[in-house]
Amino acid sequence: MKFLNTLILGFAAVTVAACGGYTAINQNFDDYTIKEIHVANVEVVSTQRRAGARLNAQYLKQLLNRRFTGGANSPLQLHTRVRETHRNISYRIDATAERALVTIDSTSFVKNKEGDILANIETRTDAAYEIQTSPFATQANYDQARETAIQDLQRDLQRQLNLFLKDYTDQKNIAESK
Q1: How does the average pLDDT of the chain come out, rounded?
Q2: How confident is the model at residue 120 (pLDDT cuts 50, 70, 90)?
Q3: How many domains does the chain have?
């Protein structure tokens, strides 16, 4: 038993030591790096005319602006296109829809001041909701699912941008050290 405890402790020590050179995906970058990205625009690509599609884009831009605080003169600009689709996923015996799915896709481009595309990030998220007999309850469920999907999309996009920023910052530091 003592050998097993020693083995586990040894494995844990090696694991912790090996991870010393890596940084977490969700690490906090310094203020300078965060200010390098300006959320230039979030636009709606409409395939199904649904009320509130522009609100999705505004909400996503608001969430992104909380994280990436660069101004219009920042060296990197983020451009995002958002598309929402909707479909039924479950039916009752009488063939009426019971559950539905909101899918939100986004395509984002990080551009430099010259307009060159440095990164192309595509994300997608789904959120299901119940269809009730009351249209007001259904709309409330739909709005909640849409909001959840936008929040998930923002987290995925932020994670991808953090990976891009880490690589971008590392390359910039290497170039400056030469």
Answers
A1: 77
A2: very high
A3: 1
